[in-house]
Design goal:
CATH architecture of the largest domain: Alpha-Beta Complex
Number of helices: 12
Strand content: 15-25%
Largest sheet: 4 strands, antiparallel
Distance between the termini: 31 Å
GO molecular function, one term: DNA binding
Helix content: 25-40%
Radius of gyration: 25 Å
Family: Belongs to the type-I restriction system S methylase family.
Keywords: DNA-binding, Endonuclease, Hydrolase, Nuclease, Restriction system
Strand order of the largest sheet: 1-10-7-8
GO biological process, one term: DNA restriction-modification system
InterPro entries: Restrct_endonuc_typeI_TRD (IPR000055), Restrct_endonuc_typeI_TRD_sf (IPR044946), Type-I_RS_S_subunit (IPR052021)
CATH superfamily of the largest domain: DNA methylase specificity domains
CATH topology of the largest domain: Adenine-n6-DNA-methyltransferase TaqI, Chain A, domain 2
Shape: globular
Length: 419
């Protein structure tokens, strides 16, 4: 089904701040290529890494290990090379690339990938001969229709993700303009034209004080905006991986990235529980200030009991969405990382909030921001829930279509019901 199956070059490229994109295993999750945090190399190493084959749109990247068996399609317009522990698959012209892509994600293929038939044990990496010998069901002319049908579900999931990203970016831009750059006040002070609705424009002063913040906005400690409660740590011997009566989900920082390690623990009044709307923050980390670091990281959108690496934010007044945007913008991470070596090593404490000073606007300004922020958050929840349903539908249909258990027409009706 492939023109070729080619292993990646076995050397580590020199990493650069810009240049040619190198696809790394961390960029591939759940069938999606995520390049929000790309890695780069220089032209010399790029040329070395594409010597055997240069990835083109429609090619499939397969991860051999760490993690094993993840796949993604190369999109249009992307010039890139493979990273380490990856294989490049180029479907033959007569093969529907989406069908092959979804086939590689099916349980039928993944059983072959993870299970060594010769020894009867699981494997930790995939060898090229084993990948080439994978058995993929051939279904004739319906292969293209299956690929298109499942692709429509993933396209909607991607559209939902992009919509949420756009709305969140708008909230961050509004936050920065109002509370960091003091845009309305600066514009007023310079005699500029209003760019907000009159009732919003009237909320902002028309001059800056000696500290270059809006007149009347006093510097207040973050502790006057929020407090927090830490999580608890049930013993690992109580952990189970499937839901069960009398158990509740234990939330860890990694759970806000992936569902690969869902854990449940016995329900108890000793647990510190959060709802989907609550704001949580990663309490520990390296203190690098990098957005990948867990210290000061925003975690939100799940319900359960938080472990000791997380804290639940408790707003002092109605400013929940303001706090979520502030924490999510990275401002808190930078401030807590740079302000206390002890906070980096042992997790920040409530007293650390006293040392972070923030200009405090009148309550009416926060109320205005909350109105917009709540719309963004409700949209994010709705689209995320819809994407979960779409993904569940896709994963339910995939094995049934591959095995012929369900007819294409019935699958189309199931897809129409959720799109």
């Amino acid at each position: 089904m492939c023109e070729f199956v080619i292993d990646c070059p076995h050397f580590t490229p020199k990493w650069t701040d810009s240049g040619f994109v190198v696809i790394r295993n961390q960029n591939i999750r759940d069938g999606r290529l995520n390049l929000t945090e790309p890695s780069f190399t220089h032209q010399e190493d790029f040329e070395r890494r594409i010597k055997r084959a240069k990835p083109i749109a429609g090619d499939i990247i397969f991860t051999r290990e760490a993690p094993m068996g993840e796949v993604c399609l190369i999109p249009e317009g992307l010039e890139c090379c493979l990273g380490q522990r990856q294989v490049l698959l180029r479907p033959k012209k007569e093969i529907d690339r989406h069908y092959l892509f979804y086939s590689l994600r099916s349980e039928y293929a993944r059983h072959q990938i993870f299970w060594n038939e010769g020894t009867g044990s699981t494997v930790s990496n995939v060898r090229i001969p084993a990948l080439k010998s994978l058995r993929i069901p051939r279904l004739g002319e319906v292969e293209g229709l299956i690929g298109a049908l499942l692709g429509a579900l993933d396209d909607k999931i991607e559209l939902n993700r992009q919509t949420n990203e756009t709305l969140e970016a708008l909230a961050r831009a509004l936050f920065k303009d109002w509370f960091v750059d003091f845009g309305p006040t600066r514009t007023k002070a310079e005699g500029g034209a209003p760019y907000l609705a009159p009732e919003l424009w009237a909320l902002f002063p028309d001059a800056l004080d000696d500290e270059d913040k809006p007149v009347g906005w006093e510097s207040k400690p973050l502790s006057s905006f929020m407090s927090f409660r830490g999580g608890s740590q049930p013993p690992a011997k109580e952990f189970i991986s499937e839901p069960k009566p009398g158990y509740t989900r234990l939330l860890q920082i990694r759970d806000f990235d992936t569902d690969a390690h869902i854990t449940y623990v016995p329900d108890s009044t000793r647990l510190r529980k959060v709802s989907i709307d609550d704001i949580c923050i990663g309490r520990y980390g390296t203190g690098s200030g990098d957005k990948k670091d867990s210290l000061g990281r925003l975690c939100r959108g799940l319900s359960g009991a938080i472990n000791v690496a997380l804290v639940r934010v408790e707003p002092r007044f109605p400013c929940r969405e303001w706090l979520a945007t502030y924490i999510g913008s990275g401002e808190f991470r930078q401030q807590i990382s740079g302000g206390s070596a002890r906070a980096v090593q042992a997790g920040f404490r409530k007293v650390d909030l006293d040392h972070i000073l923030i200009p405090r606007a009148p309550d009416e300004v926060y109320q205005a921001f909350e109105t917009f922020g709540e719309l963004v958050w409700e949209s994010a929840k709705r689209l995320s829930a819809e994407s979960t349903t779409l993904a569940q539908t896709r994963d339910l249909l995939l094995p049934k279509l591959m095995s012929g258990e369900i007819r294409l027409r019935d699958a189309e009706r199931a897809v129409d019901a959720v799109l």
